[in-house]
Amino acid sequence: xxxxxxxxxxxxxxxxxxxFRIHGVIRNCDGxxxxxxxxxVEPTERGQVLAYERAYKDVPLEPLSYLECHGTGxxxxxxxxxxxxxxxxxxxxxxxxxxxxxxxxxxxxxxxxLTKALKIIExxxxxxxxxxxxxxxxxxxxxxxxxxxxxxxx
Length: 154
What we know:
This protein has 154 residues and is mainly alpha-helical. It has helices at residues 12-18, 45-55, 75-88, 99-102, 109-123, and strands at residues 66-68, 94-96, 125-126, 148-149. The strands form two sheets. The chain has a two-stranded parallel sheet with strand order 1-2. A two-stranded antiparallel sheet has the order 3-4.
């Protein structure tokens, strides 16, 4: 698939001062690839956990209702993502991936995922994972197979 997204980013204090509508706040962003192991097409569990540790360093994890995953549909990518998520997040929140809705958009995958996350916050509803048939063998993880309403205070 192909996609594009445009976000207007600014410091939270500036957005508030100007009276802009705030759709979401990015508290941190980080990665883990050093180019030695794994990489974009072969992620490692250790690299994924390292990315979580860096990105969530000063961000409270609770309450975490939902985790938007990359979810490429590849055996190595999905297994690695689930294993690293289960290792880092306790309890493991509900999991989804926008790729089930729109396909893999290559260069815009992250921005399409961010758009979905912002719509979840706005609508207080996590959309179901269409076409989900069965979990990956050996993993017990919460996949949403129907729309889930979030509490109004989140």
